[in-house]
Amino acid sequence: MTDTPELQRVTTQYVINEDRIRLSGETAKGDTVVLWLTQRMLGILIPRLVGWLEQQGGDALLQEFAQQAAEAALGAEPPVAPQTSGGCVTSIDIATGPDGVVLVFKPEGDARGASLALTTDALRQWLAIVRSQYVIGEWPTAVWPAWMDETQLAPPPAGGFALH
Fold it and tell me: pTM here?
């Protein structure tokens, strides 16, 4: 994984013309990586990430409270400038640990992939952003747990997402 750049900031946005979610990421060196996520790929990824959160403990009510707290702490960041090029993600490796997850996005062909390390709170924040993009794209939300439905009182701020 040494040649896979690690993203420090990401902007996650539904793009209507593509009917996909664009993940624009910035590395520590300031390089930009663009990855496209399909509804099908996210339909596989989301239950795995939500399942990991649920394994960390707590019933649906505690999950809802933890989700609300993470979303409340989400601050606005300048968006990562999207680029026109980028690969469609065809597989994602997930590594989990006690403090979070690392996602390794692998696009098709020669397109450059990237890794994204997320603490538990950052994962909750990113999932809230992805869910808001699902709603914008009018994608079915059945993949999301009920405890996330209850937390969607206001959309997350637009723009970038810095990983802390």
Answer: 0.83
